[in-house]
Each structure stands twice: as structure tokens, then as C-alpha cells.
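Allow me, if you will, to draw on your knowledge of protein folds for a short while. The matter concerns a single protein, recorded as an amino acid sequence and a row of C-alpha cells. Could you please explain, in whatever detail you think fit, how the C-alpha cells follow from the sequence? I remain grateful for any guidance, and I place the record below:

…
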Amino acid sequence: MVNPRRIGVFTSGGDAPGMNACVRAIVRTAIAHDLEVVGIRRGYAGMIDADFVEMDGRSVSNIVQQGGTILKSARSELFRTPEGRTKANENLKAAGIDALVGGGGDGTFRGATLLYDEHGVCTVGCPGTIDNDLFGTDETIGYDTALNTAIENIDRIRDTADAHDRLFLVEVMGRDAGFIALNCGIGGGAELVLVPETFTEMEDIKTRILSLMTAQSRSSIVVVAEGDEHGGAQHIEAALREDEAFKSIDLRVCILGHTQRGGSPTARDRVLASRLGAAAVEALLEGHENVMVGLVNNETKLTPLRNVWSRKKNINYELLRLTQLLS
């Protein structure tokens, strides 16, 4: 059982709006419990390079509204090796860091699990990813902001689609999960939503779009998760353009990409991040090791890190049925 006096805080993997609010909560909760706090820049890469900075309450002033992460983030190929993890452990021990509190996604928690298995370094994690695909929490930090950003952009795209009777294929993030696509499809009034969790035949896609565009002579929005089995919006566009039936349809692609990761976090994300950051420190003080703090039915819940990345979080298939009903 860890009895930490000096903890390291880090963010890793893809950045997500609300990470700064989470870091702020971790630092200030730790200080309130008389713990020393060390910031680790650039995630696991920073552990290997000993890129550490002492933090106090003022270190996290005026950051709750900022997107990105003040501690930066990076992906480290070296940390994937036993030698890299050994170096990280040596640097943590040399800096007197007893335990870690980190924000990130499944890759972050896989790394933390290896660090624990090989070197006994304890991590309590906070779920930070816009994809909302982590088992053990109803919602992840950054998801609500990304969802609202996507819907705002879809609303704007629809204006120009309506003006020209165009078909827009709008690609949103979601390499392995369709949470953003599904929910912004409903919120943005999309006529068709394509997600990685379900397979839709290309002929069915064509039939659906043609029924909307030709029979009703109107614009259409199709939301595509980047991880859709057809390869994303550009691959679907290529398949449609090869079909003679689509020669007369004004077809455009808009990939929202990293716009969904940026920007000031919503109030929902700021509150979620603050709750989870504070709960992570308190879980550590209560003796919990290698767990993620999530929010389930509006209550904090601890899930072993190994379960977070080894189990799949399912989309709400009732919402998928709703997209078909409402379109």
C-alpha cells in the first residue's frame, strides 16, 4: 500500500479540453492534503527525460478555462520498451516521486499498468479523451466539448448545404468508437450516421443517400466516424463518385479533424474534470493502486486500469435506432 508524500502529475496521449481543469484539481487537492506535487511535462516522454517541475497552487492559476494542457503531451516510442520504462522509473525514484496521477486514454493506462507490473509505480488515472470510449466511466474529459464543437460545425455546414442543395460527408473523430458521430448526428439532424460499431453495405449507403437527394431534392448531411469500416469520408466519397447515379449530385467532404480537440472546455467538462481530479488524489490517499476514477450515474467509481483498456465500452444502440427513425 502506497503512502504518498510527493506525487507526480502528468497528461498523456491525445489532448482533450478540460485536462487543465483536471490538473488544477489534482494539484490543489494534493496541496490541501499536505502533499508535494511535481509536474511531469510531455507525459511518459517527460518521465524518460526527467522533464520535471515543482508545482504549487499558483502554478495552476487561471487555467481552468484553457484548452490543451499546460503540462504538454507526447507519444513515446521509447516508453514502449522495457528499457524506456526502466529509465522512467529511475527518474521518478530520483525525484522522490511516490505515486502518479495521470490523465489520458487507453494507451496512457496501458503504459501505467506496465509501469506498475514491472516497477511497482502506482498510478491513479483520470479519463481524458474526446472519444468517450473508456470502460468505467459514463463520460470522459473532453467529450462534451468535442461534441459541441462538432455540432456547431455541422450547423454551419448545413447552412451552405441548404443554399446549394449539396450532399456533405462530415467526418468526425472516432477511430475505434462512434460516440461523437452518433450523438452529433442526432444533435445536428444528420440524415445518416456511420460508426465503427455497425457495418453498413455501400449499396445501402448509396440507396439511402439517393432517396434523400433525388426523390426529395434537398441537401443532406452524412456524419462519418473516422474509423468507419469504409475508411472514412474520403473513401466513401470516392465510392460514390464512381457511381453514375451520383454524377448529378453536388458532393463535398468536410473533415473536422483536430478542431474537435481544441478550444475552451464547456462548463460540463470543467466540472467533470475537477471532480475526477480531486477524486483521484483522494483515492490515492485511501490506498487505492492502479485504478481509474470515473463517473457512473453521477457518482465517482474506481475501475482497475487493466479493465479500462481491456474491456470495450459500447455505444447506445437505442440512439442508433433513433437516428434512423428521425431521419
